[in-house]
Task: structure prediction
Amino acid sequence: MARILIFGGHGKVALLLEPLLAERGDTVTAVIRDGAQRDEVRAAGAEPVVFDVETASEESLAELISGHDAVVWSAGAGGGSAERTRAVDHDAAVRSMAAAATAGVPRYVMVSYFGASRDHGIDPSDSFYAYAEAKAAADEALRASDLEWTVLAPSRLTLDAPTGEIDAEAETSGSVSRADVARVIAQTLVEPATIHRTIRFNSGTTPIAEALASP
Result:
């Protein structure tokens, strides 16, 4: 049993992840922005904590993270201004990484996206550009850290039913259900072979546990 802290605890993937973790005996803390989300998070098996990651200091983040065994970053600005996207998807994420180190919680799982890279190819005039830039930089910061990191990079997310199978060797982006992304995160947290790896994946035909155990 582990103590897992999820940033972005009311997101669509997080709400699918939390029951998986709770059912196997993990203690789950879900960081949310809006107190009105508490009941839904509790129903999913997690304990909600209302906390503003956008404005939080590294010190307050470290206090929040302390006592957990792993951090899952599944938070995001969700669009809007480029400034807020940078503030949440990069700045707050990077502060949380430093805070995890300060708190003595080295295990850190970042939920990114398949095409995240400095060479993402998104035109600066595209509304997605700010997000692409922020995620690429945050992923790089995590890889450069001393944390026991994993960057998970699913392709286009769907609302399809889970299959329990993925393709973690794909070179081009396809699609994958949010339910399977939740299963990938859950398995990543118990699979040491995922540490210090960036795992891009689509829906596929390889069982998740098998796919993640193969470097």
In short: Helices lie at 12-23, 38-43, 58-65, 82-103, 129-144, 178-188, 208-213. The chain has one domain: 3-213. The two ends are 25 Å apart (CA to CA). The mean pLDDT is 94.
